[in-house]
Design goal:
5 helices, 7 strands, alpha+beta
Length: about 220
């Protein structure tokens, strides 16, 4: 079992969302314009109910930089999947990175904690704990189960009619990148919607699969 960090009472949505909610960055704000391969990657980035890229997406480059992670928006050879776990009223988040490099899979599991500046209006640093692990049933069986849950093709929850879109709450953000494609999507409080929407049920099953295969437990259940 992986050990989670303690509660400090900050909103994940505030930390990763509202800090730059008024920011006018465009949809490709996470792309390094000096990278000549960036323009060759087909991108699928969701829009919120206002027709804007979600605030968490606009803040993602800063979080990646402070965690020492490269952006996936320029593509990845061969395949990488990231699952970002965000918890409301909590300064701790989690991240799962599943990487396939030339046919070899690796799983990296993060517990990380935000440290704000003195004003509390921006992230000063991020501390992290990382563990590398393999699935109990083996990589082929695990990946087959994961893809059977349509992790690569699930729609963003904003595209699902009647899916309640609250102001804040726990959220799962998924990023998937291959050499020529990048997409990201999110699901807010999937456990609340799992009986109404099959897509939310799939997200819950994905979270359960990761937990059962790797022993990587959520800070709290969504």
């Amino acid at each position: 079992m992986f050990k989670s960090m303690s509660v400090f009472g900050f909103l994940f949505i505030v930390i990763w969302g509202s800090l730059l909610a008024c920011n006018n960055q465009n949809r490709d704000s996470g792309v390094k314009k000096d990278n000549p391969t960036a323009d060759t990657v087909v991108k699928d980035i969701p829009l919120d109910e206002k027709g804007l890229s979600p605030s968490w997406y606009r803040n993602k480059p800063d979080v990646e930089k402070k965690m020492g992670l490269a952006t996936l928006e320029n593509g990845f050879d061969s395949l990488q999947i990231r699952l970002w776990y965000g918890y409301a009223f909590h300064d701790t988040s989690q991240l799962v990175i599943l990487t396939n490099t030339k046919g070899i899979w690796q799983g990296d599991f993060y517990n990380f904690q935000y440290h704000l500046n003195k004003k509390g209006d921006s992230i000063e640093s991020i501390s992290k704990q990382v563990v590398t692990a393999a699935p109990r049933s083996g990589w082929p069986a695990f990946i087959n189960k994961l893809f059977a849950l349509h992790i690569q093709t699930l729609p963003d929850y904003h595209k699902i009619p009647e899916y309640y879109q609250g102001m804040d709450g726990d959220i799962l953000i998924v990023e998937i990148a291959s050499k020529k494609q990048y997409r990201t999507y999110s699901y807010q409080a999937p456990s609340v919607h799992k009986d109404q929407f099959k897509e939310a049920r799939n997200i819950e099953d994905i979270l359960d699969l990761v937990e059962n295969e790797f022993g990587f437990y959520q800070v709290r259940k969504f």
